[in-house]
Design goal:
Shape: globular
Number of strands: 2
Order of helices and strands: HHHHHEEHH
Structural class: mainly alpha
Strand order of the largest sheet: 1-2
Length: about 160
């Protein structure tokens, strides 16, 4: 071993910090940290309204795509169908969603927002928009759009992978 290689090995063994050990956290770690920070703020925002972040996610999915089945809503909300069943039951009890028989497939139930669910989302929209603005405050308009596009491309890459 060369003298410099021995010195590097001894430094590493002695616990001194080297350039290799000072590398930045992975992107997956950074994304998870952002998710946790957003989730904490979102939970604070939603708690007074008596809903969870998962329930809020399901409601916003239904706002964009009305009439989904439980399985479709679960996939779009990133939870299991069983978890979604419990979640939808809770939302239905609160009068925020309604399930109706699909006229084309009698055994399938379609889930829709009620006027109360729509009103809840409309009431939360200013606060949720403010949270998103706070998160993106250090990015200019172009960076925000690029960030959104890149996140969507990452999501597409991962969801396309899981569909295989």
């Amino acid at each position: 071993m060369s003298h410099s290689a021995v010195d590097e090995e001894e430094s590493a063994m002695a616990g001194s910090t080297s350039v290799a050990t000072e590398r930045a956290p992975s992107l997956l770690y950074a994304i998870k940290q952002v998710e946790l920070a957003v989730r904490a703020r979102l939970d604070e925002l939603l708690r007074p309204h008596g809903i969870t972040a998962l329930q809020y996610t399901a409601l916003t999915v239904l706002e964009r795509r009305d009439g989904l089945t439980n399985a479709e809503l679960a996939r779009n909300s990133f939870v299991t169908p069983q978890s979604m069943g419990d979640l939808v039951t809770a939302l239905e009890r609160r009068g925020l969603v309604v399930r109706a028989v699909d006229p084309e497939h009698g055994r399938r139930l379609r889930i829709s927002l009620t006027p109360a669910g729509q009103a809840l989302l409309a009431g939360l929209d200013p606060d949720v928009t403010a949270l998103e603005s706070r998160m993106l405050a250090q990015l200019d308009a172009g960076e925000r759009e690029t960030f959104r596009e890149q996140l969507n491309r990452c999501r597409t890459a991962l969801t396309a992978e899981s569909a295989r």
